[in-house]
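May I ask for a sample protein chain and its fold as tokens?
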Amino acid sequence: MTDFFKGISPVKFEGANSTNPLAYHHYNKDEIVAGKRMEDHIRPAVAYWHTFAWEGGDPFGGRTFDRPWYDTGMDGARLKADVAFEFFDLLDIPFFCFHDADIAPEGATLAESNRNVREIGEIFARKMETSRTKLLWGTANLFSNRRYMSGAATNPDPEVFAYAAGQVKNVLELTHELGGENYVLWGGREGYETLLNTKIGQEQDQMARFLHMVIEHAEKIGFKGQILIEPKPQEPSKHQYDFDVATVYGFLKKYGLETKVKCNIEVGHAFLANHTFEHELALAASLGILGSVDANRNDIQSGWDTDQFPNSVPETTLAFYQILKAGGLTTGGWNFDAKVRRQSIDPADLLHGHIGGLDVLARSLKAAAAIIADGTYDKAVDARYAGWNTAEGKAILEGKVSLADLAAKVEKDNINPQPKSGQQEYLENLINRFV
């Protein structure tokens, strides 16, 4: 045991009336909601990078946190792993996620870097034998090192492509060995800064080939988890090839990957793409590529990815509604891709962030389930499209009538349709009854 969280007791559910700041007030993992345990709906995960690797810096200032594992090489990485699993146990959380660069320092060569990651992976494996916390997904950091300044899979240099492949192979295999339920490809710099030096078609062909190689290797090693792409617009590149769900689906469809790959959708990235989170979820569900989600939020006054913990029950309720209507998350979960503020320097602050986030998700889940159980909202939306369930409406969608047929019918029957209210205000008020 380390003394990093010295004096802090495991977090328990104490109910809404509790005044204990280190207790769950709404998140009761065993509570049954819509026929399933709350934990099984949410499947929450701790993000190793923001929680243990982020130093508190921002574009205008460096480190503000003082963690004992910083700048101490592999010894620090081992200590960080000890602290991480103590944190998982304190929160009583079922999953975590990691990048390779989060868990171990980079070596002088790819072989040394991969060995470092493997050593910490072995520590994870031993700890997971006695911990209930499992791996939701792993991924490789293909964006921080300067070698990736022009992308990884989309880099103009095939040697960078090859180096990235070596990283991904290692992390994919480790994810498989640790029982990870998904593998994420986060294209941190898969995009361009200027078209003056960019061949878009060439780079997208490269990205597709890289993804095919990942899928082929996953099948070769027997990895049964879901391969995920995480959409992200603009930041850090001027244009990212994985801009949003629609862009990702178009890419997958073009290269014959739409049945192999799904999306890991983040609140903050949806915001940066000028979408709502529920829009991205609804679209992914309609296209059959909803896989997993990252829980966070952005500051509406900032034009960049601030990765704050979720705290809006109304917003997250709409997200849960989309997920529940889609059948829920299967191998996916709610990964807290969120970080405490750079002034929140105490170890307890890490707990406060996750406790608050889980309480928001719990309240949102219950509200969304109540909306669906009540049925009034669904009936109102279904009524708006009722005409498409008639024989005439179905005939149109089934291709049984032509453009000329429809034109002739309108003239023959003197059809003159009148607009009907979309009832937006009524529906907003209806949703607010539950949140």
